[in-house]
Amino acid sequence: MALKLSESFSPISTLSTIKRPAFACTTTLSLSSDEDPETSSFQEKLNRFLDKPLFDPDKLLEKQTDKVKESPESSINPLVWFANLVKNDYETAEALYAAGIISFLVVLTQELLRMVQYGDAYQPFSSVTNGSLF
Q: What distance in Å separates the CA atoms of residue 77 and residue 97, rounded to the nearest whole number?
């Protein structure tokens, strides 16, 4: 089933007894099962893409239990460890995920700044020789 999301905006009506803020958003959902993915609009395709989960610990753990039954040495996997952490201690998993993303973005930003600063003399992931970036 595909969900259709339609929004309508209406300005404040001075004649109406119902008071709504300016440009109030009214959202309606309608279900239709005869939607063809090829004829759907870009917005519907984008919504469908954004609604897909990137990491589903339940599916990952189910697949892992099937693999462990076949070969026990395949149980060493960082994603399985993280999926177990999500299931058992969500707050710690969330903190580790956020710290990992922020660390990655900081390193990427530093390298992009060094790339702009040094231009053709840029060497990826190397230390600065004189101890200062500028």
A: 16
φ and ψ at residue 24, rounded to 5 degrees: -65, 140
**How open is the CA angle 113-117-121, to the nearest 5 degrees?**
115
Beta strand pairing call for 24-32 and 2-10: antiparallel
Cα 61 to Cα 68: distance, rounded to the nearest angstrom? 10
Decide if 98 contacts 105 (C-beta within 8 A). Answer: no
Q: Of 65, 66, 71, 104, which Cα lies nearest the Cα of 84?
A: 65
Return the structure tokens found at 111: 């390298």
- Which amino acid type is present at position 28? T
- pLDDT tens string 41-83: 899 999 999 998 888 888 888 888 777 666 656 557 888 889 9
* Cβ pair 55, 94 in contact under 8 A: no
| Residue 103 to residue 95: CA distance in whole angstroms | 12
- Token pair of 46 as six digits: 């984008």
